[in-house]
Design a protein that fits this description.
This protein is mainly beta. The protein is 3% helix and 49% strand. A hairpin with a 2-residue loop joins β10 and β11. The radius of gyration is 50 Å and the shape is rod-shaped.
Length: 496
């Protein structure tokens, strides 16, 4: 400028001296700045600005030395102005600026500035960042204990619900499962566990949940785990959805002694108490149980059992075996036979024996032969006739009488399932409140009994099974009762 002034002064002086006009000119190049439309994508803390590459022409020639940058700041805070010159080039030739560390839900002003040696120009625009969306991460490890068929235990560990890398309090955990047998209408079983029950990231869950059905052995189940945070503004997360499969159930059983009656055309076999347990749960309480109830029989000395199906009656089982399938004069072994569980576990009772006598053999129930009992002990405190009135808590459907002498002789009269009366002799002794006996054939009673007497009531409790309680009352033998020995052998099972 000073040079221009000096030149002007010199020209004026010259003009004054020569009195001739002087023409002074300046060179102003033609500058054109080019800005394309800006495409803006903003998140809660970043914004991507993409545009055609801005440039300038000087006198119609593109200036390759021109530079461009972006300046931006918060709308209400010009002191926060930042300048960015780094950018990337896209495949289409556009340029892209990425602005980081922005504030969520904030309005920003920005300029694209193009600069060359003759000047600069800018093009302004604005954008708004989005509401902050928390970054949520969840995790859990599962370890199943599947050693049973009706039950399962799942141990959850490393339970986490994090927001922006920080632990978030969990209101409760939902564990849901459903039986996967190809049926679309199977419902999810749901149980909630309060966040306070999570200890050091661990939680143990027992299945089935309280009040729900037992699992199905060898069953496949879908399961999922859902985290619900205490902060209701945060989303519920379905952490895992997978499957587990139960194992085989442990099958056990309880049988009372088999009772076998020889009829005219068939043998009737009965067991008054026959119960199957799946992992300790009675089949009566397990909806998916479908045991096979039956009896097995074979000729004594044979290795091959024949299985026949039994009818389920109350808590017992009964069946009939046609005599035409049996050999007259032969002795047969008969036992209860139950097949249960997914692996078809076989459960059997004790064995009863029966000899198939001729239908033509005369029956003389009033004139039996009485074998002499073995020598017994002192039973004077219970001398007399006793009638079984209660067995296992109910009135029995069969008849039993005991005729006890003071010297240990006991005559057992039993009429099972409307069969003929049978009479068995034995000798008994009492010691320390326990009575035990021996039959005339030398075999011992099936068990011993705890014995108590209260007036005209006498109670015998099986020393091996406290649920087997027999209560007798003083009575007289019925008039039709045989007075001696045993009638036809209808069963080897004796009540004592």
């Amino acid at each position: 400028m000073k040079q221009f002034i000096y030149t002007l002064l010199a020209a004026v002086a010259l003009f004054s001296a020569s009195c001739e006009p002087v023409i002074i000119t300046e060179n102003h190049p033609d500058l054109c700045f080019y800005f394309g439309n800006v495409a803006i994508e903003a998140t809660d803390n970043e914004a991507t600005l993409e545009m055609a590459k801005p440039y300038v022409t000087i006198d119609g020639v593109k200036d390759e030395s021109a530079t461009f940058s972006i300046s931006y700041w918060e709308a209400l805070n010009e002191a926060s102005i930042s300048k960015m010159t780094e950018y990337t080039t896209t495949e289409s030739g556009n340029v892209r600026f990425t602005l980081t560390n922005l504030k969520a839900e904030t309005k920003y002003f920005a300029y694209i500035i193009v600069e060359c040696s003759y000047g600069s120009e800018r093009d302004g625009f604005e954008f708004v960042t989005q509401k902050h969306k928390p970054e949520i991460s969840t995790r859990v490890k599962t370890n199943f204990d599947l050693n049973k068929g009706l039950f399962a235990t799942v141990n959850l560990s490393e339970i986490e619900y994090k927001v922006d890398g920080k632990d978030e309090a969990i209101a409760f955990v939902k564990f849901e499962y459903k039986y996967n047998n190809g049926m679309a209408n199977n419902e999810w079983v749901t149980q909630e566990y309060a966040g306070s029950s999570i200890n050091a990231g661990r939680l143990t869950i027992d299945i089935p949940m309280q009040g729900h059905k037992y699992l199905v052995e060898r069953g496949t189940y879908d399961y999922r785990i859902i985290f619900v945070p205490e902060n209701s503004d945060l989303e519920t997360r379905n952490v895992q959805e997978r499957e587990f499969q139960t194992s085989y159930a442990n099958i056990t059983s309880e049988f009372s002694a088999p009772i076998v009656s020889l009829k005219e055309n068939y043998i009737e076999a009965s067991i008054l108490e026959a119960e199957v347990f799946y992992d300790g749960i009675s089949a009566n309480d397990y909806d998916s149980a479908s045991p096979f109830y039956g009896f097995a029989y074979r000729e004594k000395g044979s290795d091959e059992w024949v299985i026949v199906e039994a009818e389920r009656k109350s808590n017992g089982i009964t069946t009939k075996i046609a005599r035409r399938d049996l050999v007259e004069g032969a002795t047969y072994e008969i036992r209860g036979h139950i097949s249960a569980g997914a692996n078809k576990t076989i459960c059997t009772s004790n064995i009863a024996e029966v000899t198939i006598t001729s239908n033509d053999q005369p029956v003389t129930p009033d004139q039996p032969i009485v074998p002499e009992p073995p020598v017994g002990g002192d039973t004077s405190t219970i001398e007399g006739v006793w009638h079984l009135t209660t067995w296992r808590g109910v009135t029995p459907s069969f008849e039993v009488y005991l005729d006890i002498t003071a010297t240990g002789g006991i005559t057992l009269y039993q009429c099972i399932e409307n069969s003929y009366w049978e009479v068995f002799q034995s000798a008994a002794s009492i010691e320390d409140g326990i009575i035990q006996g021996l039959y005339t054939d030398g075999t011992a009673w099936a068990t011993s009994y705890y014995l108590t007497v209260d007036g005209d009531a006498m109670t015998w409790v099986d020393s091996n099974d406290p649920t087997d309680i027999s209560i007798y009352s003083r009575a007289e033998l019925p008039a039709q009762m045989p007075t001696q020995g045993t009638t036809r052998a209808m069963t080897s099972t004796k009540f004592l």
